User: What shape does this take?
Amino acid sequence: MAEATAYDFEFHSIDGVPLPLAQFRGKPVLVVNTASFCGYTPQYRGLQALHERYGGRGLVVLGVPSNDFGAQEPGTPAEIKTFCETNYRVSFALAAKERVIGDRAHPLYRWIADELGEAGQPRWNFHKYLIGPDGGLAGSWPSSVDPQAPEITQEIERLL
Assistant: This one.
């Protein structure tokens, strides 16, 4: 049996439309668990900046709203989408709200946990995972690392 890659997983968009990661095959994808009422919420600006800077070259930014940490994403899909668009002019892809930790986590996050072990699981909102064009994990950064930090942008540039 072939080894799983990120392309084997599917989310639903914030609008409820299927969002298979396979559609991004061959592109780097930055997956970030997000929340609207977190001290790291201003990182939406940096994620949008990455989308604007690298999107034309192939980078996909995918925000995955989650209420797992501090109940900081309590809203409905419509409320989350409005918040992101109004406050941060987010135009990158947003998934529907998902669990990102534990046994009930979205399958992509369970796969990441299997790949990286417990130390690689998100510990808070705005943990960043970079999926390479081959569907494998190419990087992981905790919430405290700004989306535009050199360690992230250098890895993105290397993959483009």
About this structure: The domain at 27-159 is CATH 3.40.30.10 (Glutaredoxin). The two ends are 29 Å apart (CA to CA).
